[in-house]
Amino acid sequence: MQMLQPEGWKRPRGYSNGIAASGRFVFVAGQVAFAPETAEIVSDDFAAQVRQTLENTVAVLREGGAGPEHICRMTWYVTDKQAYIDQIAEVGAAYQDTIGRHYPAIALIEVKGLLDDRARIEIETTAVVPE
Fold first, then answer.
1. Are 109 and 78 in contact (CB under 8 A)?
2. Which CATH number fits domain 2-129: 3.30.1330.40, 2.40.110.10, 1.10.10.60, 3.30.230.10?
3. How far apart are alpha carbons 92 and 97 in whole angstroms?
4. Exposed end of the chain (fewer CB within 10 Å): N or C?
5. pLDDT, tens digit, for every residue of 8-41?
6. Which string of DSSP letters, residue by residue, matches 62-99?
7. DSSP classification of residue 34
């Protein structure tokens, strides 16, 4: 996996501008903050939802023989970008605890709503496991 950082560009904080990789792809559908045992949203707190969503993402990756270090791309859909900004320290801690110091290409998009009315974040992920 190669991080793509054009010469002269300021390094982004918390993500990469691009990734080049080859190998076996693992696609993770949009994950939300449901408890795996009950399929109920774990909390209304934004950062708590981020943490559970990332844990669910990693569980699906592991099922596909991948880990957080194989993530190339993530798209984060949030219903409230201000909640993301207000809880950035907690979001960062959840990310570090779950994904570690790996920074794939990430897009964050504010949306009007998600399928589950209590969901405040949904993340879809693409990983590439080297052959």
1. yes
2. 3.30.1330.40
3. 9
4. C
5. 999 888 888 899 999 999 999 999 999 999 999 9
6. HHTT--GGGEEEEEEEES-HHHHHHTHHHHHHHHHHHT
7. B
